[in-house]
Amino acid sequence: LHPPPPPAMASHTSPPPAKTAGEPPQGDVPNPRFGMTEPISRAGPSAGDLRSTKGLEEGLRKFGLYESRVEMQRRESVLGELEGVVTEWVRRVCLAQGMTEGMAAASGVRIYTFGSYRLGVNGPGADIDTLCVTPRHIDRARDVFGLPAYAGGPAPPAENVLVEILRASGKVEDLVAVAEAYVPVVKMKYNGVEIDLLCACLQVNSLPEDFDILNNAVLRNVDDATQRSINGVRVTDAILELVPNIENFRTTLRAVKFWAKRRGVYSNVMGFLGGVAWAILVARICQLYPNAAPSVLLSRFFKVLEFWKWPGPVLLRPIAHDGVADLAFKEWNPTLNPADRRHLMPVITPAYPAMNSTHNVSLSTLAIIKKEISRGKTLLDQNTESGSFDELFE
Questions:
Q1: pLDDT, tens digit only, all 394 positions of the chain
Q2: Strands 193-201 and 128-134, how do they pair?
Q3: Could you confirm whether 377 is annotated as catalytic?
Q4: Strand 110-114 to strand 193-201: parallel, antiparallel, or no bridges (unpaired)?
Q5: How far apart are CA 175 and CA 114, in angstroms?
Q6: What is the distance between the alpha carbons of residues 377 and 57, in angstroms, rounded to a whole number?
Q7: Is CB count within 10 Å lower at the N or C end of the chain?
Q8: What predicted TM-score, i.e. pTM, was given to this entire model?
Q9: Is residue 322 annotated as part of the catalytic site, yes or no?
Q10: Residue 196 catalytic?
């Protein structure tokens, strides 16, 4: 098994390159609108804003939130090797089904990353959320997890089962495969890097070179588990498409996530907000202040959200229903769904099917979140001149 050439992997696994501050997307108009409304301000950063941003970045580095270049390169190497493994695995399954070498090679397979790694805000030692996308002749239960095709039937040969190939590779340890999870997952350490690997088997004969994972047509005829598996990548990539300046977004999100963890409001399971929700909130602030420096964006984050009229939803784009008439996945729609009307702090994902990323928020946790946001605004208002953010992160 050998890794594919890095260029084939980098476009959909590595964090995307940052847009230059204030630079509109290629081919776009000079003052583009990002999101649901016009920006509150298009003002660029002042010299003081840039100094404050430098202090913010130095503070984040002081807290050890950035990984080293060596660790970054090791992660990229692991992802390259993993793509080589799944490419060989798909080839074996195709040949076992009677395909020729040419047909097997044309089938295609993709490895994507999502979550904090794809957004470019992961810290040292964090795991990598990874998705393997395959065409229709790969069966997740049989070919990924090695389950029999039918009850009491024979298990597939181990050399064609992804989890067995990984176990036998000599580079994988602590592998746990959970086929019956809400989102089926393979957890492992690959060369010391923690990986959460999902698999989406799409109803297409092959994956072309120009395969677009954001095209809603990729969801046609897939089951719920596949839709849930692919959703993380689609949401992450949609967020990156909808922010005006990726580098400023990253710095601000890194600060907000650190603040949320330090203040105890980072946990979807506990009724607070998870990584996706915080990313969407930061992205919306970036849309409202497209040319602002991260220090200003951080201040505006607390200022805007302190006065947000919940349960008014936060959206990065309108919920569009065009082109999805033949797709039956349930979307967040408080007009039609009574349960959605009970959501207290809706933060809506920007990819079909649109969902509320904060459905676990309760009256008590909402009150805590609002209190912490108010505290953050007060501290940043007081520390405008000093440029120190340490108290915010206490």
A1: 333 333 333 346 666 655 444 444 444 445 777 888 999 999 999 999 999 999 999 999 999 999 999 999 999 999 999 999 999 999 999 999 999 999 999 999 999 999 999 999 999 999 999 999 999 999 999 999 999 877 777 889 999 999 999 999 999 999 999 999 999 999 999 999 999 999 999 999 999 889 999 999 999 999 999 999 999 999 999 999 999 999 999 999 999 999 999 999 999 999 999 999 999 999 999 999 999 999 999 999 999 999 999 999 999 999 876 556 668 888 999 999 999 999 999 999 999 999 999 999 999 999 999 999 999 999 998 876 556 788 999 8
A2: parallel
A3: no
A4: unpaired
A5: 20
A6: 19
A7: C
A8: 0.91
A9: no
A10: yes
Residue type, 225: A
The single residue of 196, 206, 267, 370 carrying the catalytic annotation is: 196
Give yes or no: 129 in active site.
yes
174 catalytic? Reply is no
Cα gap 366→346, rounded to integer Å: 11
Q: Is 261 a catalytic residue?
A: no
